[in-house]
Amino acid sequence: MMADVDEVEVVVAHRDRATVRVGDEFLKIDSDLARTDAEIEAMDLAPVPTPAILWRKHPVIALAALPGRALGRLEDRSTASPAAWAAAGASIRRLHDAPLPPRPGPSLDQLAARLAQECEWLLVNDVLPVDVLTRNRRLAESVLRAWPEVFIHGDLQITHVFVDGDVVTGILDWSEACRGDGLSDLATLTLAHEEHLEDVVAGYGADVDLDVIRAWWAFRSLTAIRWLVEHGYGSPDTFPEVAVLRSRR
Asked: Can you give the CATH number for the domain in which 82 is found?
């Protein structure tokens, strides 16, 4: 039983799932049992720190709070040190070097179809200037290639990596973990934080194709906007993803 707490903090809430913080516990609510099972399996397999699972009663998983704080926020400048960003890169490398998880990622055809559908929606709804949309779609299409499959987190947003000083204390939210392109994880972590890409790559410790990372920035941004709009995150003009797309030349 949890001790008395002063308040319940809503961390994220939308139609797919919700997470609330109650004291030192995070309660993650997800009605999709298969997705929850896959997330727990990925956490068990991942060779990096993850939150301790305190208890589970569908549709809720209770997770222990991680020490430290998130590496940053997508919309704000990160105050974490270059060493902390490098430590995040090293953690990602350990994950990518691990044995493959059983869950397959989306196929190239599925990724291509998703990109086409989202770009059509952006065009019909006049979300981006045509030249910005065209330029970024062309860039995003270059991720559609053969890649060596690795164990990826799948949604490695900056808020999902916790650090205490220069040490990674844990990585959150494994619901999208699968086999896929490792460069997509590096891109997701550094989206809208391009100034830290060099630190992450240094910690990762392997040659990476920076052009492909930039292509994944475009892909993730183009395919995220409709979801954000439909889940009540406001006007696209305020999204960091839109700023990233407009900044591409």
From this structure: 3.90.1200.10
